[in-house]
């Protein structure tokens, strides 16, 4: 399967699409789903893997000695192994299942942040962070009197790395956090370079990989980061599951986050000993079916090949940018096609993104409108909200055509 | 379950909505308002501020400002028109259903919050009510 | 549907069982699943509700304006409403979705505990708590120099309430936490009475309802508690979802726990305003499919009638106790049949519970062996581990017969 | 995927496992052990303590104590037998597979941890190794 990761033939999105039940469902108007950055659709293989768990081996894991419990345990840990391998982890022990990216980042903020940061320390983030990689640090910053600093963006929607050395200069920065691919601008950020500078300044590097793991090949070793968060539902997997990868030494040194069953080794009334990695951070009954579903999603993505998935995204985004430029009064946000993934946000003169989305919905075109959980970025861009189209392996050029047609229609409705 | 465009898009963007959106009544701010309150729709960033002056228990001037979609702005415009000249008590009685009737359209759960933002802002400003009007129905 | 909650005709477990795919699955030996206290099996209705979401309306919620996003939002909030109603909440706003009971209790420990408790305060728990309602408080206690006190158990495995007034006497207790139905002893604890005493002493009352919500009628108002935690996978619902109910005033006053999208109202680089209840506590993309699945589980349980489910559990446990007493060398743990739910733990002289479970597994009988995440309780009972059988609506008396036959066989194997 | 009783229960409880369980070799403690280490299986509460005396680089006395199931106790008994008289270096070389071969049975992922607890305890005690032997295979 790994071989196909580097295959060069392009993705047959039409054939892929057939494997997603939502596109086969009967409906009044065909679904043109252009909101994969919010959540991806799920292939049969993922849904079936979960149904198979529930329908044949449903049991709680790690403690049951009977056959289906052992099978469920093996399936769950197997999913961890596949996921760890998918992102280039050295060991599955470095891969902690969480309920989503947000929980993964909060885990770092609570378990690592609360044990490592003190008054006077600083954290560097970027202006283009999703709230998930901003609010946890704001809460911590307020609690601990830690300073937040921000890498600004350039006019073209890229990180202004020229500002980074100054931000790091006083040696007070303990963590640098950055989104790998922006969920609004589509910008692919130079993580390896940021990580290099962070480490040189004695800081740890956290990557919000929510939009990269689902769409392009990733390798935590090559990125050189310390913490790496992602979420299952955007990578063709189910809701309710995500992951945190972190360097083993860091995880070993961190206190646990949530207390409960499974994360302990020994409990007395007076105190407890923690379990080993990764279970130290997995309290209570985990999303077992969801982990198994996510494992199936990884298999499915690998069978497509991540290089090809990314190439497909980029072809569509290039086509979309070309077509969108035809629409009068439309402003594209973010960098040129060669610097971005399959996300394109825009505004339309005189028509609020909500109204754009509503008109488009009437044609079955699903785009997102609002601030996309990136309010500070929108403030920096000087727009209160934007409309956003985003792609995945099942997206088709005619969906872009429907989007463009809908935008022309919206202009007509509001020109009355 | 009815979607945003339950009644179709053309229904949603009825003449009078677009008219209020493109030619808002009472848009602006008051210089020294008796009551002023601003609220946002956390889901999308729509923002409405309502300024009221009250004389002899009657709302004798009302203005709204802010940014947002046609539904939230038209709703604010319609609400201003509806309460000007009314007593505060009368204004307080305006319900979620009254607001939707003014709008005259069917709204799905997400855009409902756009349609009710002005009313919510008014109620919070006028008598410190900090919940969604009829909250549990649209929770 | 509500009417059936009080129906008197008994449950037709054989017919119920047919609606669970795991019991229809072909296997070498029939599955005799006696581990429902660890996790319950799932009826078709629950699995299908999730498949329907993934296959027809899969979209992220609360922010999407297009049709399937609005349908997904409505379905998710609808599930919340049904669940709130199921436990007697005054408003769905008091019901926060979490990933399980453990996360629900940790939410209380972090958001309420960290903001309310200071050095010198005390928390009263019971010796029969599951680690989920023990370890979070141990972590907090160590961090804040808070004292933990414990309600002991009597020789028959009930809470020794005579000790409670003394534990509460010095007025330093801020929280009393107790399990509603013990996952080992099956004991049904007198929560309303404990809550009354807790409140009289100025303390809040937290109930770990992980084993009660799935098995008997519950009403948070009648229990008179302040916090109430439960978990989806034990109540015929999916993994990855659970709930915390709490009094609205408490939730309003609490700071948020996890930071991220959805829990905020407004984000600036310098700080954020929180969203309203319940979303203030729901950061990031929630387990959407799982909430919908849990809503279907509630419908299913209601269609059976919770009184009938509980009566069925109690009939089986009475039968099991009678049959188990036949087995030489077997010791039953916990109180008499009239004081317990559908859980029965025991030890067998000279045979470790693991070995008991392995021998039973050979007959397809699935029981749990170990400390059942209740190490301190086992210490109090003076046994390192126990074997446990537990029931739900699909359990049959012949499964008890198979258990008893297996125990006789185990004795033979180890008598060699 | 093989269950606990992959080879059937009678296979699992082979004569020699039951024999070691019911008549353990080297059960007990040493008075002033050169090395002593205790570990538990967090999944089930099995507990093993290993005491070693080393003279001239050789393990000249070894005892185990603790509570647990037949697999964990028999494994401890077998392991003691296997290492007595060996050098520490030889003992360190005993692998997960060697231990499973001693046991002579197939174990599913959960009971595997019972079967390996004694070895894990030995390794941690003997040279501070704090991971499961062959951890990633049975992670
Ligand atoms: C009494 C009790 N409390 C808490 C839990 C924890 O539930 P979960 O693992 O779903 O968080 C359980 C079940 O394992 C339980 O039986
Ligand atoms: C860049 C980015 N970070 C974080 C998140 C949060 O993911 P989740 O909601 O699954 O936690 C998202 C998606 O919403 C995202 O696009």
CATH architecture of chain B: Alpha-Beta Complex
Could you name the ranges of chain A where pLDDT drops below 50 across 5 or more consecutive residues? 1-7
Q: What's the helix count of chain A?
A: 15
CATH homologous superfamily heading of the largest domain in chain A = Type I PLP-dependent aspartate aminotransferase-like (Major domain)
The proportion of residues in beta strands of chain A is 15-25%
User: How much helix, percentage-wise, in residues of chain A?
Assistant: 25-40%
Helix/strand/pairing category of chain B: alpha+beta
CATH topology value of the largest domain in chain A: Aspartate Aminotransferase, domain 2
Q: What count of structural domains of chain B?
A: 1
Number of discrete helical segments of chain B: 6
Bound molecules: pyridoxal-5'-phosphate
H/E series of chain A, N to C? HHEHHEHEHEHEHEHEEHEEHHEEHEEHEH
Distance between the termini of chain A: 55 Å
Given this structure, which CATH class of chain B is correct?
Answer: Alpha Beta
What is the quaternary state of this protein? heterotetramer
The CATH topology annotation of chain B reads as Sufe protein. Chain: A
Number of domains of chain A: 2
Structure, described:
The complex is a heterotetramer, with two copies of chain A (416 residues) and two copies of chain B (139 residues). With 416 residues, chain A is an alpha/beta fold. Helix content of chain A is 40%, strand content 16%. Chain A has two domains: 3-42 and 305-413, Alpha-Beta Complex (Aspartate Aminotransferase, domain 1), CATH 3.90.1150; 47-302, Aspartate Aminotransferase, domain 2 (3-Layer(aba) Sandwich). Chain A has helices spanning 13-17, 21-24, 44-57, 67-86, 101-116, 135-144, 164-168, 191-200, 220-223, 248-253, 288-304, 306-324, 353-362, 375-381, 397-415; strands at 32-33, 95-98, 122-126, 147-151, 173-179, 204-208, 227-231, 242-246, 264-268, 271-274, 330-333, 343-348, 365-366, 368-370, 386-390. In chain A, strands 2-8-7-6-5-3-4 form a seven-stranded mixed beta sheet, with helices on both faces. In chain A, helix 3 packs antiparallel against helix 11 and helix 5 (101-116) runs parallel beside helix 6. Chain A is globular. With 139 residues, chain B is α+β, with helices and mostly antiparallel strands. Chain B has a single domain (26-127), classed as Sufe protein. Chain: A (Alpha-Beta Complex). Chain B contains six helices and three strands. A three-stranded antiparallel beta sheet of chain B has the order 1-2-3, covered by helices on one side. The longest helix of chain B has 19 residues, at 109-127. Chain B starts with 8 loop residues before the first helix and ends in a 12-residue tail after the last helix. Residues 1-7 and 130-139 of chain B have low confidence and may be disordered. Chains in contact: A-B, A-C, A-D, B-C, C-D. Chains A and C meet through helix 3, helix 4, helix 5, helix 6 and strand 9 of A and helix 3, helix 4, helix 5, helix 6 and strand 9 of C. Bound molecules: pyridoxal-5'-phosphate (PLP) (2 copies). One pyridoxal-5'-phosphate sits between chains C (37, 100-102, 130, 132, 179, 183, 208, 210-211, 231, 233, 242, 373) and A (261, 284-285).
